[in-house]
Batch of 2 targets.
Target 1
Amino acid sequence: MAIEKVGVVGGGLMGSGIAQTIAQAGYDVLMAEVNQELLDKGVGRVTGAWTMLTGKGKISEEQAKEYRGRFRGTLDLNEFHDRDLVVEAIIENQDEKKKLFKTLDGILPAGALLVSNTSSLPIVELASVTNRQTQVGGLHFFNPAPVMKLVEVVRTILTSDETVETLKEFARSLGKTPIVAKDSAGFIVNFLLIPYMLAAIRMYEHGMATMEDIDTGMKLGCGYPMGPFELLDYVGLDTTLWAAEAIYREFSDEAYNPPTLLRRMVQAGRYGKKNGKGFWNLNEG
Ligand code: CAA
Ligand code: NAD
């Protein structure tokens, strides 16, 4: 099917990066948030990236104007009535996502695809509250979405071949490489990445090394662009905790059982880069 108009729900870290990426690829993009303050923040993040890219000489003023012309924010989901594809990128909470899928299913045209950017939650459960179960799947972007080249296309037990092929083609049209994962908690990348990040927290909890040395170890010893604590702060500690809990629920494997310190960080309201408080400034009082 032809995709021209895309909706993105959630204008946080991921939603704004996804909306930016899709608008840059030539699609018309509408991005929704829950209130005006968060919408302004999300829209500002997208347009700010275009200003940054213009400043660096990576895109022309003309291109930035074109991107801005096909992107806008809204607080009204009814405006999604003409979207061919909607990417859900709201908080990692299954009840909230289910409510949203049900609402969107009642608004979108019959042929539209509805996908989730969830890191770990079962997508078939989202499909089950809609009347378009074969047209629901996952489109899992990586942070920062405009830069990272991978997209996981998640196929549930109900997703049709046509939907999977359309999503793969769509990912390619964004300049990404798609890989296909089953609808199993953590898909491919987070199934490997989450236990690595949790192991780093356990090492620190057990006094085996400082956070700085753990980060330096993985950056210089393995060539990773960020150490695990830097990455945890970048991804979001709340998102990491919810994703780990979801994979642990599914597999009962202790490697995914969130360490107490991660819970305490989230209970303390330290979510990482997104709210300016994370592991990197934990010891600054
Ligand atoms: N749009 C377009 N380009 C952007 C951009 C944006 N919004 N933001 C940054 N860029 C570009 C910059 O212009 C820059 O390009 P040049 O090098 O050509 O100038 C490039 O991206 C790199 O940016 P920076 O110079 O600011 O930063 P950096 O070199 O330190 O790299 C990084 C930053 C790409 C984030 C790198 O540190 C990295 O790859 N980190 C690891 C990220 C990672 O592992 N992500 C996956 C997280 S897990 C996940 O996402 C899944 C989940 O479900 C939790
Ligand atoms: P975030 O907290 O930065 O953003 C979530 C946004 O969703 C918030 O701004 C919130 O106001 C908004 N929201 C909540 N309910 C909404 C609703 N009903 N309608 C519209 N907006 C709503 O979180 P994030 O890091 O952007 O994560 C979003 C999703 O992407 C999660 O499912 C997460 O697991 C997944 N994800 C995150 C990363 C990452 O590195 N952070 C990477 C890949 C996937």
Target 2
Amino acid sequence: MDTTLSAHAQLETWRNLPVKQQPAWPDHAALRAAAAELRTYPPLVFAGECDILKGRLAQVAQGEAFVLQGGDCAETFEGVTADAIRSKLKTLLQMAAVLTYAASVPVVKIGRIAGQYGKPRSKDTETRDGVTLPAYRGDSVNGFDFTPKARVPDPWRMVRMYHSSAATLNLVRAFTTGGYADLRQVHAWNRDFVANSPSGERYEMVATEIERALNFMRACGTDPEELRTVEFFSSHEGLLLEYESALTRTDSRTGLLYNTSGHFVWIGERTRDLDGAHIDYFSRIRNPIGIKLGPATTPDDAIAYLNKLNPDREPGRLTFVTRMGAGLVRDKLPALVEKVTGEGHQVAWICDPMHGNTFEAPSGHKTRRFDDVLDEVKGFFEVHRGLGTHPGGIHVELTGDDVTECIGGGDEIVFDDLGTRYESACDPRLNRSQSLDLAFLVAEMYRSAS
Ligand code: PEP
Ligand code: MN
């Protein structure tokens, strides 16, 4: 990083580099006005919180904690409702309770939430019945409806992204610190779920054991304050650089730059060009950051990312989120882990078992098989066990609702079910039951690996 440039100048260098996956904003005056407006807004997160998360991720890199990162593929403005936010949070809290209890490991909880509005696309356009329109790039850019008007990129949507993120984060903070996430509520999170689902019943047994442990502790005279609140962080793909840089601020404590639109931001598989704008922008901020690594990543690429994004080898700064696909993880991951470890770097390795396992169902729905998701996580654990490194966490697309977007799971969804409740604006998500199934299975893998 060039430290001779002023903080402001550092923030602008990405503009001179090749940039991928940015919308073709038709109205440049509107773009400038929307970005100027965003620059006047207060930060959504505090730099000190980002540092706390960096510390937690350093523990993950050292093998002392496990990350649960999850949420929608694409948040939508319409989805900013109390019910939807509560049920996503509830699902993550239930998964975290299962993992913490059954795997006996501290769980770092990170939502793909309060900012996950911009989407990279494999094609710039979408064609239906002979009509071609710009692709949907997330609610922060254009509308999902397949009409010429909805698909025009509108920079004021980034302003709505800020407000939607603020409202979401406010409720998440209220729930996680105001009593809802108190571990004594471990049964309450399951109340609407237990009666009709095998995973809900299984969860109920864990919750009863946790409750017994809490009662035992209380009887012994200890009732720790730590169990009343939950430490929860926000994250999203830092895709739209106009938005991310407008929300980047100088930390008053240290004079360093932080992206204040979320605690953790990551670089996606399609925007990780070593000499591109995204890597440059991310090298300027001090947040803990992630980078998605697909099967084409070479061990030398991984080292080049480390040198560019974490030259000072700061613990917890860089997380590798691998998304190889169930069929490739056992072949492709070992060389990366070996090289990175061999060169003395310590990173948190997280498995995204979603993005390498997407296919089109006969009905035309984008879907994933629960068994493939599970198999990629299994492969990830096998590789790390084989090399003596730490499987540091999972990154999943999920929702708290009873959607029918992924195939399989204990409460099995088959191809014919996909049309029943397919609501994702982008990739298929695990529903609540599939998410809990996954948490139980990952807890078992973790236990037998450690
Ligand atoms: C995503 O996380 O939704 C995504 C697009 O992932 P990737 O960059 O790994 O394809
Ligand atoms: Mn996705």
